[in-house]
Amino acid sequence: MLRRAAHTLEIEANAATDNPLVLTGAGLIVSGGNFHAEPVGFAADMIALALAEIGAIAQRRVALMVDPVLSFNLPAFPDPRAPA
User: Fold this and answer.
1) In a structure prediction context, what are the per-residue pLDDT tens digits for the chain, which is 84 residues long?
2) d(CA 18, CA 79)
3) CA nearest 46: which of 58, 35, 54?
4) pTM of the complete model beyond 0.90
5) What is the CA radius of gyration of the chain?
6) Which of 10, 39, 80, 84 maximizes the CB count within 10 A of its CB?
7) Where are the alpha helices (H) located in 1-84, listed in sequence order?
8) What is the DSSP letter of 32?
9) Which of 51, 37, 29 is nearest to 9 (CA)?
């Protein structure tokens, strides 16, 4: 999921989606900055979902490690400096 988001962001960062104004009388091309950010928003949403899932997995692993009932009677806080 993160690789797909990175791929999308790379494409969008290198894309040219502007509708410039071509001012022939002045010999100018003026960028209007009318960029469409929907693909970038979708990529950001995918990143947020992936990070939320990683956080959920980490939380469950920590909960299993510090709960003596679920960790086969290991100490609640496996730190040798912690009070017994």
Assistant:
1) 889 999 998 988 877 667 778 889 999 888 766 667 888 899 999 999 999 999 999 999 988 888 878 888 777 766 677 665
2) 57
3) 54
4) no
5) 25
6) 39
7) 2-13, 38-66
8) -
9) 37
